Amino acid sequence: MAELKSILSMNAFTPSEDLPKLQGEIKKETERRLKLFGSAAVLFFKEPLEVVKGEGCYLYDVKGEKYLDCYNNVACIGHGHPRVADYVSAQLRQVNTHTRYLNTVVDDYAEKLLATFPKPLTNVAFTCTGSESNDLALRMSMYFTGGTGFIVTSGAYHGDSYLTTMVSPSTTRRKVPDFVRLVPAPDTYRQKPEEVGPNFAKAVREAIDDMEAHGIKFAAMLVDDIFSSDGVFADPKGFLKEAVDEVHRRGGLYIADEVQPGFGRTGMMWGFMRHDVLPDIVTMGKPMGNGYPMSAAVTRPEIIEALTRSTGYFNTFGGTPGAAAAGTAVLEVLKEDKLIENASDAGNYLRDGLRALMADHPVIGDVRGTGLFTGLEMVKDRGTKEPDPVSATLVLNRLKAHHVLTGAAGPDGNVLKIRPPLRFYHADADFFIDAFKASLAELHL
Question: In what order do the strands lie in the sheet with 218-224?
């Protein structure tokens, strides 16, 4: 396998190669962004897109062109949702302050959110981003277990704080620190279904053994339950259980990173529910406020007490009434519009349609996923299953020409990560399938 590809470089605009090819206003706006942001500027596509409006599962560019958004899980109940806008604007007109004051809007939301979790996950700490949630979860696990060692998958992404960057091999260009152990992702494409769970548990067991051999006490395993950055691995249901049982047997905690699979995307409220496991800490972000910056970590009382005995915890903007208003709107719409049920139905319909193309297009190696989270792996040869990142990049940019936006994942960047807002229906799936089929034909793939 090639050297691990940074998630930020997948389908990214490369100034040295792509800027000279741009013309007109888009070139001027791109140059402006590069000047203002410097080397930290990250843009999608060979020709960047200037977005000015969103509605449902569609985005509109500055020219008024309409694009099917099959990448953005942030706006989980749809771009520009009026209930989120109405609830937040009404709350901001009234009051928006920190949680050192009592506020029924905040407490009502906390109760509704915690009601979606099994006991004993009964306490919540609000944050502003998924990175903050994962950072907090890692610190809680250290205080609770007395350990400092963490296990993550080899292509994981868990945030961009200092600590979460250290456990995000898909973003760092440096070797992970000594307190981190990497395990291979549960590759459901290259392993037999009955091998996935035992192989993953074996890797976790060996990682803990290696920590202990080097004098490092194990604290926690942190995994994204859909293994998104690793290439999207969902099935068979329950394959995580053996590894989670091993984590608990060895005195560690299981942190479920639900920033991407959470809030109904997998066809269940939380991704861990597909695996018949109980996390010690659950982190969430992005979809929680449908674009309003809010996130949280949910855990057991004794775990959060281990943190507060040592450092205390307070977040000025975590859990404000404005954030709670946004979160309330999301929970209401998920239920009223049956978007979790729709995720299962529309996702199965999309994958069935994509699999129907495999007979005529050998570049499609695998179509996998659950709910509205699909990984489409492109390969040079189905026999060898050799990744084909070049074709994946070509297809992603060709899809854009057909007004479809999606992204890439996997260590080689050869997996199309199809992750639309949950307001995505059969007609939208048909639009994607037709665009994908046309892109393959135009590229002679």
Answer: 123-127, 295-299, 281-284, 253-257, 218-224, 149-153, 180-183
pLDDT value at residue 84: 98
Please, are residues 262 and 366 in contact by the beta-carbon 8 Å criterion? no
Q: Is-contact 164 135, C-beta < 8 A?
A: yes
The pLDDT confidence band at residue 224, using thresholds 50, 70 and 90, is very high
Looking at 162-171, 340-349, 375-384, which range is the least confident one? 162-171
User: Which pLDDT tens digit goes with each residue over 74-129?
Assistant: 999 999 999 999 999 999 999 999 999 999 999 999 999 999 999 999 999 999 99
Asked if 240 and 200 count as a contact pair (C-beta separation under 8 A), the reply is yes
Question: What is the Cα–Cα distance from 254 to 6, expressed in whole angstroms?
Answer: 25
What are the residues facing 381 on neighbouring strands? 386
Written in H, E and C, the secondary structure of 366-413 is EEEEECCEEEEEEEEECCCCEECHHHHHHHHHHHHHCCEECEEECCCC
Mean pLDDT lowest for which of 30-39, 264-273, 358-367, 425-434? 30-39
434: left (phi over 0), alpha (psi -120 to 50) or beta: alpha
Name the one residue in this structure whose structure tokens are 């009223």.
336
d(CA 150, CA 186): 17
Calpha distance 108→106 (Å, rounded)? 6
Q: What is the pLDDT of residues 396-410, one digit of tens each?
A: 999 999 999 999 999
State residue 176 phi and psi, 5-degree precision. -65, 150
Contacts of 295 (CB under 8 A, 6+ apart): 126, 127, 128, 129, 130, 132, 133, 259, 283, 284, 285, 286, 288, 318
Query: What is the domain partition of the chain in residue ranges?
Result: 82-336
- The CATH code belonging to domain 82-336 is 3.40.640.10
Query: Does the CA dihedral 2-4-7-9 come out positive or negative?
Result: negative
Span 191-208, pLDDT tens digits: 999 999 999 999 999 999
Taking all residues of the chain, what is their mean pLDDT, rounded to a whole number? 95
Judging by DSSP bridges, how do beta strands 218-224 and 149-153 pair with one another?
Answer: parallel
Cα first-last separation, the chain: 22
Q: By C-alpha distance, which of 277, 269, 281 is closest to 243?
A: 277
